[in-house]
Specification:
151 residues; mainly beta; OB fold (Dihydrolipoamide Acetyltransferase, E2P); 2 helices; 15% helix
Length: 151
Amino acid sequence: MNLKEIKEMINLMNENNLLELEIEREGTKIRIKKEAKETIGFAPVSEYKVEHIASPSVASKEAKSEEKTVLKTVEIKSPMVGTFYRAPSPEAAPFVEIGQEIEIGQVVCIIEAMKLMNEIKSEVKGKIVDILVDNAEPVEFGQNLILIEPA
């Protein structure tokens, strides 16, 4: 990726009020994170942090061996910005609990965006390992919501 493409990514972030953007192309990942810094007597200043994550050809053998020892999980990520809900209504039971077996297509949570309730369904069969977000908590696009151990 060149400097022009990175500048375009930063403009995209500014236009859409994004705090973080991660793009992967041809095995190379770039993550841009915007952090607000406040200074006494001045308006907040935005700082951009660009991380280049090594492509597979550059990755070390040690990193590859570490990946093999990590528990294999599938992440359900938020497809949008909104509010995370574990149940269809405040008095209803949650869609899923930690340790529960789930099927492909099973609803695992809801994300409310602009007064629309969007059901988030599992794309894998397996067991819920962890629920990473609290009920009624705001979530960002791409944020990990639930970890599943595939069956």
